Structures
1.
Amino acid sequence: MTRCSRRDTQIGVLTQKLRLMRQFFSSLRKRGIWRTLRISIFEIYYEYKFGTDTLYIIPTEQLDGTADAKVHATDYFPSSYLILHQAFSWLGETCRDGVLVDYGSGMGRTLMYASTIPLKRLIGIEISKELCAIASKNLDRLYGRSKRNRPPWSIINSDARFFDLPEDANLFYLFNPFDAVVVRQVIDRILVSTRTVPRKCTVIYANPLHGSEFASRGFTEVFRQNDDFAVFQLYLEARGSART
């Protein structure tokens, strides 16, 4: 390794530490000491359990992907394991055998957590090819270590606006991965899919800055944990009328 590359690496590590420190103090102000401590404990526990290192903050401009897609994207930051635990625990048996679509799947953290739940299939959608590769590596390693092959998973390098939903997709996860423009287009695709094949759909929306977009399109907010996450549900009957 050259002196220059070592220096670049050191600067990169320092930059990451500063970003994480800012996030930590922001959480203290927003959530208080106890909840921030619980978040930290869950981070340590699950990173150790899964044998991964996914706690990075990557500004949008440093992500690979098309310029058009990045205009609507937010900075990469992984979902909190505590929030994942609370959201899926609240759903309980209602998500059993569900088909999960994780929009903005990043390094695969949500999919790794969801793999511990009796779901039918896991699908990650991510605009960054580099993050897709990291996520695939993380999931391959996790499944290899635990010697299992279920639930089956796939990571798809795609813009969420253009991803055609499988007809059985009924559970959706977002950690504020993009702006309201893309949220509306994702909702359009969910509605078109459910009108074709009527089914109940559940959306877990972490950091739900654009939650009103779901509420205005027939989804009912059935649960909210402050500003950390909200759960929306929708059921379209055969004639296309919404019933929640």
2.
Amino acid sequence: MKKFFLLLLLPALVSSFTVSRTTPLTTEERKHAIELLKQTQKDLVAAVQGLSEAQLNFKPAPDRWSVLECVQHITLSSPGLFQMAQGAMKDPNDSALKSQVADDVLVKMVEDRSRKAQAPEPFKPINSPYHTLNETLAAFNADRDKLIEYVNTTDDDMRAHIAKMPFGNIDPYQVILMIAAHTNRHTQQLNEVKADPNFPKQ
């Protein structure tokens, strides 16, 4: 009799397990994030190739960042943002909290240079442990390659958790998109420095 009841309960138990397990990213989500991460990596590296020390360290104004400082900021920020995503993954999921912004809207918002923002103190170039372009890019590329591998292989349910940002709630997957968009934002900034009329010729 006991075996009979266990057999009756078995489908319900299996169903419960199926519902509660994590849901990995879709193929399309992985592809989209990886393409953004790779493209913004490529664009940043290309933007700083062949620049002299004078060009790397030129500032359009005392309160503006140089090209090198933009790269340092990107390199400091990327792992910090990823740690935020990882922290959100560890928090219990509250089904009442959902992302408050669409993926494409988030990317455009972060990339929009007309929206000014103050960098958090830990992410300011003055706190960079990397002092040359080569060592800064080496750290950036190592971190970016590691992040791409994570997105490509993870089974984490990145849509089922929330990272609370000043502009609203986003999910950990969107933090990954934000990392790519943030790279683009400051690549635009360093290109603005290069376009300054007083930018050194060499």
3.
Amino acid sequence: MDENGPLPPSEVVRDRLDRHLRSWLGAWPPSGAVTVVGSPRRRQPGWDGVVRPFAGVATPQGAVLSVAPERVERVQAGGAGLDDVLDGVPDALDAPGAVVGRGVFRYAESVPPFEPVGEWVPAEDPRVPAWLRPFGGQVLVVLDGDQYVAGVGIKRHDELGHELAVATEEAWRGRGLARALVARASGRILRAGGVPIYLHGRGNAASARVATAAGFPDRGWMILGLPTAT
């Protein structure tokens, strides 16, 4: 993979994102304040083999909530506003007591200039820590000799939507490794025809700083989901 080739124009990246969300959720963009759509994807395992019966993305213009087709009417009955509908989702999906999580959804259209760090290795490489191995394919890691110190994995939701996850060993934090790794992985995804996605908790200031520095602005979008058994 050529990591030095030209990046796609922003409009191409946004088209990729639209197509990914349309496939992953069942509809995109939102047709109103709350669009509830039935999708067979909610019965199928995700990138990690886990079935997620509910998924959603909300923007300042509206939200798309994705459930199995037979659950659409029950979810729609929760109300007209997003908060009311989300409050009713757990009962509508036979998960009483659960709470719909709301995180920050970011995507990148470009890559800021960073000195490239890390090396791409197979996820099964013995130097790769256990948390990175389930991502499969290649992962981007920084090594101190043969010792792992930081790395990025890619959750391949489909051919277009590739979500990044990053972690740095505590003793190596504060050196800019995470943001440089995320930026490099993002550039590879963009050049390979995908759209890089970065999700984090709303209260995770450290992750927010990494995302912003790596070219993933906060556009006011949210990722919505229910806890899943693993």
